[in-house]
Amino acid sequence: MNLKALHQISYGLYVVAGHKGDRVNAQIANTVFQITSQPPTLAVSINRENYTHEFITAGGSLTVNVLRQDTGMKFIGRFGFKCGRDMDKFEGIRYRLSGLGNPILEENTTAFLEVRVDRTVDVGTHTLFIGEVVDAEIFNDAEVLTYAHYQLVKKGKAPKTAPTYIEE
Ligand SMILES: Cc1cc2nc3c(=O)[nH]c(=O)nc-3n(C[C@H](O)[C@H](O)[C@H](O)COP(=O)(O)O)c2cc1C
Questions:
Q1: What is the whole-number distance in angstroms between the Cα of residue 17 and the centre of ligand 1?
Q2: Which domains does the chain have, with CATH numbers?
Q3: 97-136 in b/e burial notation, b at 16+ Cβ within 10 A?
Q4: CA 117 – CA 49 distance, rounded (Å)
Q5: Which atom of ligand 1 is found nearest the CA of 53?
Q6: Is the pLDDT of residue 127 over 90?
Q7: Which of 6, 65, 71, 159 could form a disulfide bond with 108, CB atoms 3.0-4.6 angstroms apart?
Q8: Which tens digits make up the pLDDT trace of 132-160?
Q9: Average pLDDT in the 122-128 region?
Q10: 166 CA to centre of ligand 1 in angstroms
Q11: Which helix (H) or strand (E) holds 81?
Q12: Total-model pTM
């Protein structure tokens, strides 16, 4: 078996955000995908250990913020390699709150979608959050960031908590 075949699956890169009371947190995720069109339904796989997991579970909803291709590595590092338990990830970041109370990033993004979680699937290390898209907006027509561009051009890696992490 050649597990390198997994590298040939394409993804985008997103900031997935949630809220818990009046607190917010977010993380990078590549595992966002549309699973049905009627109703428009998305799924995202989030590691149980991530702080964002706690927030999505508490708030019962999440926003998917679609990253622009020209997003800097510092921004990706903040949301993808640091934990909200150790820092306020939104300090100095431009955002507003959605109707359901989740962060909508106002920088480095082309669009957002909001999902009301109506189903979760326990997949061991991760939880698959599934739900209907209840709000969405396109901000601009900038190129979106793909996982391939992140790896090949930006030379970015995935941390251990990412589903696509591969031991070197
Ligand atoms: C390129 C990339 C892709 C990632 N994809 C996922 C993902 O799909 N699911 C996941 O749970 N974590 C993913 N991660 C890891 C989280 O973003 C990371 O563990 C983050 O620090 C969690 O922050 P938190 O503890 O504040 O929630 C990814 C990270 C990177 C850099």
A1: 11
A2: 10-152 (2.30.110.10)
A3: ebebbbbbbeebbbbbbbbebeebeeeeebbbbbbebebe
A4: 19
A5: 27
A6: yes
A7: 71
A8: 999 999 999 999 999 999 999 988 888 88
A9: 98
A10: 14
A11: none
A12: 0.97
